[in-house]
Write a structure and sequence with these properties.
alpha/beta; six-stranded mixed β-sheet
C-alpha cells in the first residue's frame, strides 16, 4: 500500500478517536499516522459528516463539538471527494450492480472518484475488487 492512495471509511476514523476497542483503536491510529506522514489519505464529504456526528454524539465518550470541528478541519488538509450529482448517480449504479446499501455504494464510488487504490473499512467484503479499487479490512490483517 506504500505510496498508493487510500480512502478511509467512517469507522476507521472513529476507531482512531475512540479507545473503546483498544485493538481497533491501535490499528486505526497506526493507519492514520501513516497516512498523515505519506499524504496519501482520501476522505469524502459524506465520511467527514458521519464522523462528526458519531464522534460528538454516538461514541461512549463523545468529544465536544469544538474538538470534533477541529478534527474535521484538520482532515480538510487531505484530498476530499465532494459528493456531487454524478457521484450519486454512479453510486446508485453500484448499489444496483453489487447489491450494497446505497450509503455504502456512495463510499465506494467516492473512493473510486478520488483515485484510491485501497478502501479501508470493516463494513465490506475483504479483498473485493471493483475496477482498480481493492477493499481491505485492516483489522483482519494485523
Amino acid at each position: 500500500m506504500k505510496g498508493d492512495k487510500v480512502f478511509l471509511d467512517t469507522n476507521l476514523l472513529l476507531y482512531g478517536y475512540d479507545a473503546g476497542s483498544p485493538v481497533k483503536h491501535a490499528v486505526a491510529v497506526r493507519i492514520l499516522e501513516g497516512l498523515w506522514k505519506s499524504g496519501t489519505g482520501i476522505l469524502s464529504t459524506q465520511v467527514l459528516q458521519e464522523f462528526f456526528v458519531n464522534v460528538t454524539k454516538k461514541i461512549p465518550k463523545p468529544l465536544s463539538v469544538t474538538v470534533g470541528r477541529g478534527i474535521v478541519e484538520d482532515f480538510l488538509k487531505w484530498k476530499i471527494v465532494a459528493i456531487e450529482g454524478r457521484t450519486i448517480l454512479r453510486a446508485i449504479d453500484l448499489h444496483e450492480t453489487h447489491k450494497y446499501a446505497f450509503w455504502d455504494s456512495l463510499v465506494i464510488q467516492s473512493a473510486i472518484e478520488g483515485g484510491a487504490k485501497w478502501l479501508l473499512s470493516e463494513d465490506f467484503k475483504d479483498g473485493q475488487r471493483i475496477g482498480d479499487l481493492t477493499i481491505r479490512n485492516p483489522f483482519l490483517h494485523e
